Amino acid sequence: MARVVVDVMLKPEILDPQGQAVAGALPRLGVTGVASVRVGKRIEIEFTGEPNLEQARQIADKLLANPVIEDFTVRVEESAEASR
Amino acid sequence: MARVVVDVMLKPEILDPQGQAVAGALPRLGVTGVASVRVGKRIEIEFTGEPNLEQARQIADKLLANPVIEDFTVRVEESAEASR
User: Fold this and answer.
1) Which tens digits make up the pLDDT trace of A9-67?
2) What three-state secondary structure class fits B20?
3) Under an 8 A CB cutoff, do B34 and A48 touch?
4) Nearest to B44 among A9, A33, A45 (CB)
5) Cβ–Cβ of B40/A42 closer than 8 Å?
6) Which pTM was predicted?
7) Does the ipTM surpass 0.85?
8) Among B74, B44, B30, B18, CA closest to A12
9) Which end of chain B is least crowded, N or C, by CB within 10 Å?
């Protein structure tokens, strides 16, 4: 089965309070040197046959992302089973 | 600046109602041929200097993922500025 991965992130100019909360917690973990953290979504779509990027793009645009505040990228993940 | 990407997904054996809801909505978009959908998180960490994978792994393990129900992968994203 072929897997298509859709990454949905807030646009760079949109405030990301969740990412800021993570960044603000890092000094308590002893982590320094982090400039910023952004939190988004990763969606894995398993197609039964050939992966259909055009269909995946349509799903992302209509269902997964809000195009007003979010950008998304769509790609085929080749060796999905091997990496997990 | 170097960007490290952390992908956090529910373990394969854990039920993902959000992914199932997306999969259930696809026929209404006219999309068939999708076997399953899983929804997880993508976190982008910008380091001010060199990306520190070990530190990113520690952040993911302690702050971003719940290791009981979630798996995560950590990787350096090279051409971050170019792709967005």
Assistant:
1) 999 999 999 999 999 999 999 999 999 999 999 999 999 988 889 999 999 999 999 99
2) helix
3) yes
4) A9
5) yes
6) 0.89
7) yes
8) B44
9) N
